[in-house]
Specification:
By secondary structure, the chain is an alpha/beta fold. The protein contains 13 helices and 18 strands. The strands form five sheets. The protein has a seven-stranded mixed beta sheet, sandwiched between helices. It has a four-stranded mixed beta sheet with strand order 13-10-11-16, covered by helices on one side. The protein binds 5-S-methyl-1-O-phosphono-5-thio-D-ribulose.
Length: 371
């Protein structure tokens, strides 16, 4: 996607051919800063500190983290160490484990002398694959948007509500939830996006709104508790969100607050869709509420807010009274019964075991064999 007319991906190999560049998402929307990672620890830190975030990008960063590790030491022990360092960086997005497993399967059979080159090549493929998948999601999701448009009056725009950032910043390019929106916009079809601010880290207000503005897509940022009201008044045609992990039976784990949007959508008969690339499916579990580890992050993320002052300084201020305890659960689980459909690269699927296993038999089979 473009930033001030220049094409960017969220992560890339620098012109030196080995170090890894990424957009520092902690600094947006006020500052556009590029960070450089030169070893595996830096990649793990980038994931942990949310310099990079979003399930598919976490996976791609982990793959490049393994490549950085192999560059300095390509022994079996170093591969194990890189895996252990990266897997602990964030617990909820399954794409992290998926990418590390892909890297390990690729590298272990090779002699150490071949591992560094192979690791960069495989990480590059993971990044390219992410983009190709997201283009598939874009096409399938676009059909849903256009079906809604067909029922509207001439010239009326389609209103999509989204939560958190499942945009191009959360992937390598295009995004998942935003991919159909960008495609609709690029093809001249008028869409408007209600962007949940997404407290406590404000990924909607800081990242999704920034992306949409740079791409020229009409949007409005709303406080997190507004969606239900909009739905009651017919102002939301469909919800599209991303996800960090989908279980074999179609339960969806995503940024905290997603479940409440699904409940409001259900109550108002608004279609609630989840866009996901297949590496986000965890075929090894089938009970999202009990089996998905929910990340708990620092109380500071809730107790403080960071923003730009009128004179241009970036400041962090406290918004919770001193001494009040704070809870910061990063994700929640939306049961499959509340999901209208899963927008994948292989089509829009029913959120159930049969549909997922039929669409992705190769993944379902491998994981069943591992169990
Ligand atoms: O905590 P974050 O910002 O990494 O959470 C991101 C989300 O919840 C996204 O919706 C999800 O990763 C899907 S990204 C395509």
């Amino acid at each position: 996607m473009k930033v001030d007319g220049r094409h960017f991906r969220s992560i890339w190999v620098e012109p030196d051919g080995w170090s890894i560049g990424a957009i520092d998402q902690r600094r947006l929307p006020h500052e556009f800063v590029v960070a450089k990672m030169t070893d595996c620890d830096a990649a793990a830190d980038a994931i942990r500190s949310m310099l990079v975030r979003g399930a598919p990008l976490i996976g791609a960063t982990a793959a490049y983290g393994v490549a950085l590790a192999m560059r300095s030491d390509a022994s079996d022990a170093a591969l194990d160490k890189a895996y252990a360092t990266l897997i602990g960086a964030r617990p909820t997005a399954i794409n992290l484990k998926w990418a590390l497993e892909v890297m390990r399967e690729t590298l272990l059979p090779l002699p150490p002398s071949a591992r560094s080159d192979a690791a960069y090549a495989r990480a590059g493929e993971i990044a390219e694959q992410d983009i190709a998948i997201n283009k598939g999601i874009a096409e399938h999701g676009l059909a849903l948007i256009e079906a809604i448009r067909a029922r509207k009056k001439e010239g009326e725009r389609v209103n999509v509500l989204t939560h958190c950032n499942a945009g191009w910043l959360a992937t390598v390019d295009w995004g998942t939830a935003t991919a159909p929106i960008y495609l609709a916009h690029d093809r001249g079809s008028s869409v408007h996006v209600w962007v949940d601010e997404t407290r406590p880290r404000n990924q909607g207000a800081s990242l999704t709104a920034w992306e949409l503005a740079h791409h020229g897509v009409a949007h409005t940022v709303i406080p997190d508790n507004t969606g239900g009201h909009l739905m009651q008044h017919g102002m939301v045609d469909l919800v599209i969100v991303g996800t960090d992990r989908v279980t074999a039976n179609g339960d969806v784990c995503n940024k905290i607050g997603t479940y409440l949007r699904a409940l409001a959508a259900h109550d108002n008969a608004v279609p609630f869709y989840v866009a996901l690339p297949s590496p986000t499916i965890d075929f090894s579990i089938d009970d999202g509420i009990r089996q998905i580890p929910i990340e708990q992050r620092s109380a500071d993320e809730v107790a403080t807010m960071t923003g730009r002052t009128a004179d241009g300084r970036i400041e962090t201020i406290r918004v919770v009274s001193d001494g009040s305890p704070v809870a910061n659960y990063g994700f929640d689980v939306t049961p499959s019964r509340l999901v209208s459909g899963l927008i994948t690269e292989r089509g829009v699927l029913q959120p159930d075991r049969d549909a997922l296993a039929r669409a992705f038999p190769e993944r379902a089979r491998v994981l069943r064999a591992l169990k």
